[in-house]
Design brief:
The complex is a heterohexamer, with three copies of chain A (about 325 residues) and three copies of chain B (about 100 residues).
Chain A (H helix, E strand, L loop, with lengths): L1 H11 L2 H14 L8 H26 L3 H27 L5 H12 L3 H14 L8 H7 L2 H13 L16 H9 L2 H28 L3 H23 L4 H24 L4 H12 L5 H9 L5 H31 L3
Chain B lengths: L3 E11 L3 H10 L5 E5 L2 E4 L2 E4 L9 E8 L1 H14 L5 E10 L7
Antiparallel strand pairs in B: 1-5, 1-6, 2-5, 3-4
Helix pairs in contact in B: 1-2
The chains are: A mainly alpha (about 325), B alpha+beta (about 100).
Bound molecules: adenosine monophosphate (3 copies) and sodium ion (NA) (3 copies).
């Protein structure tokens, strides 16, 4: 316990978390500090490119083993199943109506790539080894949750009087799949992964001064923006009700628990296991909201983003990282 | 300078369904349209602002110049395509110089 | 297609006092508003252009759709809030479909 | 609240000839104008979108508030300046509060 | 004298000044070269973050001494008092009406962080030692001048017939203070300073490849943009009248002189002293214009920016830096 | 032959080409991946600054010899004469009407600086020496082609019934020249070149961490955007007709051939010769379109950009680079 508290305290003093806190504080105080939208998008593109390519290079260098493939499968399954758990909690504890609860649940089955990135930076700082190709699992877990969310909405979303259950003019499935799988960040993450895998270490070296060296500093700037966004989100929509808030903390903890169990069953080592736990615990705020907006326009998209961006994301970054790392180190092999 | 009466249709809508409205505009045979950026606002769905990377809040404005007859046909179509989604449609009178340029 | 007459109020104003105008719009009970970016212009205070980091030149456009009665009340309030600051207010007629959507 | 009738001229035009239109606006003695960004559209010259670094597609919207008399003089000048280039000109009625502010 | 001329010539050939000159030339020739606004903002955010964090780290490593605290106090006082001097010069020499003269005076009491940054780069090139924590004094000097400017405007701004002296609907003081202290660049500068101080050298190392190494190159790009802005500003507003122009050069020279005197009295060494002189000599074009715009809308904000951005800034960057360095080296202890 | 195929295969697996391909694929699949416009402009500004400064530094260090001056002259001549050849091919083979053919021809006489940049990266990878000051020739070749294009349009553009040949309100020559010579990228390229030449290696060192080290990675990101642009261009305008398409490949090949001949006659070594060939083969999509748009508004500007950006550029990057390098190595002295 003491060491968790100490790790949490150290995490609190990392530049990463401090810049996030600065963003939160500036946003909360209504400072006019703002990262221009184009820059925020560029930072996010940079992080995707970098993490994707790093993953591909790692794959090219280390190859693939059976345990990794199993973990891939487990990730896909986890992303598809977590929304069912999340749905129940958001309905019961959060008191959210069915269609919105289904949409929110999809966010929590999917993952937050920035949380994943922060976790890799955390592990590097803590000196705990992990494989860069874990990012492939992150990419695989982006989308299955969306199917689960749609299923839940169609199954439990009672039609309003005289209207169709979900949307009068529902987007065709092809368009939906397109929106999801060709989402810019998913495309880039996977594309850069493949490029890294094709070029291997040699290709990586030639672009390292841009693609890898500034990574941690860029992450700080990006987290500053995330802090600003989270604070502004809260200012615009207000804090969710206590039950909903609680669910926004409990669902990631449950996701972390389930993921830890899987990692233990598959004999995954601590570093990779911690990253898998982070994937289970984190919630999407880029790919999934766009898809839900299109497919379930009547769901409360604002609440979904408030929860994933302004409740779960800060929780994971500030308290979650040291907690998940401690859990992984306690229960998984080194 | 002779001018001709047209309708100016102005739509404020979520970027997510831009393609749907453009499809309706083209299907009805309008000669063109223009899209403008929008940076924030407030309506029945609450206040929003273009803030960084989070999606779903993104909106834009589409302007179509059309003959009164075309406008009469087009507006209900646009209205239907926007059902369930947040946004507004306005129509006003404008004058243009060359009538043939617009349908 | 039945339409209803509303007023479209368009304000071009310095970003510095956006909050003040929005406060007036909300205080009078308008159902919504939309803000648009502006990139340059010229008026009695001279020409300006969005150029980089220097402040003070930044402007934006605010559009409010309101009933004629509300517009009659709102415009003088907006006008007063803009006194001393550079900017213009316009009002024109528009038609909307659902009347209830706007106050 | 007493208002005055003016004309709102709205031009969508290629950025390449912005300077030419502004010159015409100033030459005719308009008291001001405002430029707005535009992000895409379609017309007789095909569809376009602001995409990155390639030039030629860039467009913008210029809005001029002018007295009916000035508008009558200005619009043909603008029209001539735009010959050969892609773009549209619209004119509509607006009300302003202070008449003196606009010429 | 010979060595000042030589230093000035060398300064003229530094990439920093040359890129500024390129911007001036391109803007003057009406080239369509332009740094997109979002990029200019990002560059400025980067510079603030970097210089702030560097300062905080220096504080963490070197601690604080009494002389530094005295200099902080002196800086605050200088920022508050310089506007009175500037007001007289802009009224008498510049022939500017009271409210505008008060607003402009506030700009000259405050500081230009980019001039400060250019001065640190100049010192580094010249091999003259200084303490990175001097940036804290820059942050402290941003705002007191605003109070002085407002005082001057209220004291001397004769009300126009039938209207209030300053503004019919004057912004409440709280809003003003908010606008000033929570100005984005002030927030970021101070926030990054605190972060640097909290994380110390270790936190700095992990982000150095992004936060510190590219600093000088980024400054070149930013100065290119400043040159473009200054030239466009002049093209839009025309050159100020000779008297006004002269005041735009004399006021910074007086500011420099007073600051040098203070530095000598407090026994500040040459490097830090030169930076203090630069703070005295430079004029704000970010935080103060925004505040004045809100508080004194009837002041000629355009003239204020023309003076600070297109007259004083180039003067300081091109001639001021070597001059102030020479003054500091001649009069202060090494 | 075998070695060309191998070089082509290796080029295909370079990060540069792979990111370009990723952009093409994402754009073709209508992914919503997009580089914000401001970022794309900043990347292009960065590349111009970097390559220009590198060139100037090389000039300062290596000086100038007669052969280089001759090559400069040859480049200017080539840029002026190539459009005549291109005009014939686009008229005959492409079946394009005179004014548009003239406008397109001007694009092919001019050069694509990004293709040039990619060629320097290619040579560096391939270990073939070249002189960085070659970029001066690229700058010189930007504009002469425009004169040739205008001449062709005025000579062969038959006036439509009752209207002037080219444009009812033709821009005055001064405005045209302004538009061309003060085009942002030309200004920056030349400005940075002069700065590099003035500061020499010492100035370069102080900004290297920003200006030179990240170069190749930035190029990858920029090529990703170019791929997206090319794919979107094709989606918007459709593939040109077979004859036009063929001309879009043949004209660069002819340009390459003529340039190779000149390089051989002047006794230019293989590395520099390959760069000269690339200048001959590449087509402008920044400076020339803007000038043509203004001067020849009735020309089909869309087709010109489709050809240069979506046909010739990919051809040059993917197949052209290894081909031209092989040609240069076979026919020029090492
Ligand atoms: N009365 C109004 N005037 C101007 N814009 C409005 C108005 N009502 C709504 N809007 C715009 O349309 C968007 C969606 O409206 P709503 O669906 O009512 O939330 C708002 O966010 C505003 O940008
Ligand atoms: N006649 C006009 N037509 C269009 N926009 C105008 C007009 N007059 C002023 N504006 C806009 O309003 C801003 C402020 O006007 P002013 O307070 O007159 O300087 C100008 O910079 C323009 O953007
Ligand atoms: N009917 C229309 N409604 C709205 N905007 C139009 C219309 N026609 C043309 N435009 C705009 O004007 C631009 C140039 O039109 P054109 O010269 O017809 O290609 C188009 O790209 C659109 O942005
Ligand atoms: Na998850
Ligand atoms: Na000062
Ligand atoms: Na060429």
């Amino acid at each position: 316990m003491a060491s968790i508290a100490q790790a949490a305290a150290e995490n609190l003093l990392s530049p990463m978390v401090l810049f996030f806190a600065l963003g939160l504080a500036a946003g909360w105080a209504k400072s006019d500090l703002a990262i221009p939208e184009a820059i925020a998008k560029a930072l996010s593109i940079y992080l995707m490119m970098s993490i994707g390519m790093k993953g591909g290079i790692a794959l090219a260098e280390n190859g693939i083993d059976q345990r990794f493939l199993l973990l891939c499968l487990a990730g896909i399954l986890l992303s598809f199943l977590l929304p069912f758990l999340a749905y129940v909690l958001f309905r019961r504890l959060g008191g959210i109506e069915p269609v919105s609860a289904a949409a929110i649940a999809a966010h929590y089955g999917s993952i937050s790539i920035v949380t994943y990135i922060a976790a890799t930076a955390y592990l590097r700082e803590a000196g705990l080894a992990f494989s860069d190709q874990m990012v492939a699992i992150a990419a695989l877990m982006e989308t299955p949750a969306i199917m689960a969310g749609l299923f839940l909405a169609h199954r439990f979303g009672a039609p309003a009087a005289g209207t169709a259950a979900i949307s009068a003019n529902r987007p065709p499935l092809g368009r939906m799949a397109h929106e999801v799988f060709l989402n810019g960040s998913v495309t880039l993450l996977i594309g850069a992964f493949v490029i890294g895998w094709l070029t291997g270490g040699k290709g990586g070296e030639s672009v390292a001064a841009f693609m890898f060296d500034p990574f941690k500093g860029v992450l700080c700037l990006f987290l500053l923006d995330m802090g600003l966004l989270a604070a502004r989100r809260l200012a615009q929509s207000g804090l969710p009700r206590p039950g909903t808030l609680l669910a926004g903390i409990l669902v990631p903890l449950c996701g972390a628990g389930v993921a830890l169990l899987i990692a233990a069953l598959l004999g995954i080592p601590a570093g990779n296991g911690m990253l898998f736990v982070v994937l289970g615990a984190s919630a999407s705020y880029i790919a999934v909201p766009a898809a839900m907006r299109l497919a379930l326009p009547r769901a409360d998209g604002g609440l979904a983003i408030t929860l994933s961006l302004a409740v779960t994301f800060p929780f994971n970054i500030v308290l979650g990282l040291p907690l998940y790392a401690a859990m992984a180190q306690a229960l998984l092999q080194p | 300078m002779q001018t001709h009466r047209k309708k100016r249709i102005e739509i404020i809508v979520e970027s997510a369904i831009e393609h749907r409205l453009v499809a309706a505009i083209e299907a009805e045979g309008a000669s063109g349209y223009t899209t403008h950026p929008v940076i924030g606002g407030k309506g029945h769905h609450g206040a929003w602002q273009e803030i960084g990377i989070t999606p779903g809040s993104g909106k834009l404005a589409i302007v179509v110049i059309a003959s009164p007859e075309l406008a009469e046909r087009l507006v209900p179509k646009l209205y239907a395509a926007m059902a369930d989604y947040s946004g507004v449609i306005l129509m006003s009178d404008v004058e243009v110089i060359r009538s043939a340029h617009f349908s």
